């Protein structure tokens, strides 16, 4: 596994060069910054009917696409702008729009661009997709063939006149998931079909097909819109059928000939899926940034009264600090990891299997961290965390889809781990083999190889039983080590890296006790020390992520909450309105311990009339409750006094 070969050394060097380039690009202003603050993105769509929400997501997707204005060159070279699109925090505002954007540019336009340089007749449709004049889709998987898409059953039969006939032979061959149901915008798709010429199966090839004009399906094409997935931002996912649809010869992208290597030809034609693996995996960076920002802002704003009657923000509790600061640290480390991995992935000198391995590792690690954090941070925001409007729950549900689409995390892990364990190739070695995470990775390899030594082969039931369940953990271990190396090389602050390492230890604490001599208490102490070191810089770290324009969650500020509440359906007459922060205006937010950065700024300024009405409210309450209570107290004392006097006198 620890490879010292020239190809890997080249890869690593190239990776660092590319990293610098990518990093510079990512630091340039995001093209969507103003768009994110526009009404198109700031409006709360959660209460709208599903159809309207879907149309809104298309509008948003179009606006994102136009803000980036990617060219065929961007798609073919995988330019920094392409990666910037896939690390843009605007995805956290509407994951459905994000899904549509990556299908449009990476999958559909990217596949067209692969063939367009030698096919001038494709220029127009490619331009339409790039300008988002049409919706661009990618119909690969079928109900019966997802991870084994190479066995798909849709057919494209060459007819004597040179046309192709596209056909769905049975229900199992329906294309599953691509959003092909009409929503007002014409739709064109790359459709993968088993190509039959003179009765011979020449393998799965891509065809460009116009599916509908925005309202009416093309003859012979049926789209059945699926009900919503549940929880995620709505997409018009569909089942798509072709009933003996005639396609002109030019619809075929590539040659109708029998390829020398059918498997290699298939993977070449779906190579945008491999790009998609690392592209949508990269979304882990903005996901961690936005979710940690939202949870931090809420935890600073939300106060509770403690045992000493002091009002404190919930951020003062260790149980908020640990997950929030961990997510901030993970975001910084994942940012460095993503830049390093992209550098390696785009370097054509690196063996293709290694590049695809890097894509898989990145996706597995990014999604693992981001998903765990979406859930934990959502929980730490109480009831507010459950509401889609506050972004965390929607991001989590959207990312469940991301974990499956364009490379299912488990399937990626099984394939990669098996190939690495069999030493078919290797990935870049640890920069610091003595680091805890590198030792963990090496230890897992050693343990699994030892288990395999007694097995007949990797297709045996023993391998299935003992190794398969470990594959995801192994790939995560490799990724954690790579992320650590990338963060150290990129100069991420030591305390942040320490906190990241502590979060990785928590995923396999027993290994570190058994093999690295790090006792459980020591592991917790490492985390605690890192949290203490990072916390004083929280505001600085939040500002550095620069994601505030991409936050629409009302729970993050009084101002946003007030505006959100003002737009809710109300029952009851005038006078029901309350100050959203102080209830009846008397809440005391003044007591706050030193653990509470910038809390003062989170309090809305109180006007003179507010203060006057607050004092008036106190006087009113005194007459309403204080005065009778005092009277009762005095009469009790008097009765007790009389009783005592009576006993003494008697
Ligand atoms: C949000 C979303 C958007 C999508 N968009 C598109 C799109 O635009 N175009 C398109 O063509 N497709 C799309 N898909 C489909 C996607 O590509 C497939 O869902 C994916 O390839 C997995 O296939 P499957 O769902 O059929 O899983 P299955 O093949 O049914 O696999 C289910 C599970 O079985 C297990 N499994 C399967 N094979 C193996 C194996 N060899 N070894 C061990 N375990 C195994 C794994 O646990 C796996 O998770 C989308 C999916 C999602 C979730």
UniProtKB/TrEMBL annotation:
GO terms for molecular function: acyl-CoA oxidase activity; FAD binding; fatty acid binding. InterPro entries: ACOX_C_alpha1, Acyl-CoA_Oxase/DH_mid-dom_sf, Acyl-CoA_oxidase, AcylCo_DH-like_C, AcylCoA_DH/oxidase_NM_dom_sf. It comes from the Eukaryota. SUPFAM superfamilies: Acyl-CoA dehydrogenase C-terminal domain-like, Acyl-CoA dehydrogenase NM domain-like. GO terms for biological process: fatty acid beta-oxidation using acyl-CoA oxidase; lipid homeostasis. The chain crosses the membrane at residues 622-641. GO terms for cellular component: peroxisome. Pfam families: ACOX_C_alpha1. Keywords: Membrane, Transmembrane, Transmembrane helix. Residues 288-420 form the Acyl-CoA oxidase C-alpha1 domain. This is Acyl-CoA oxidase C-alpha1 domain-containing protein.
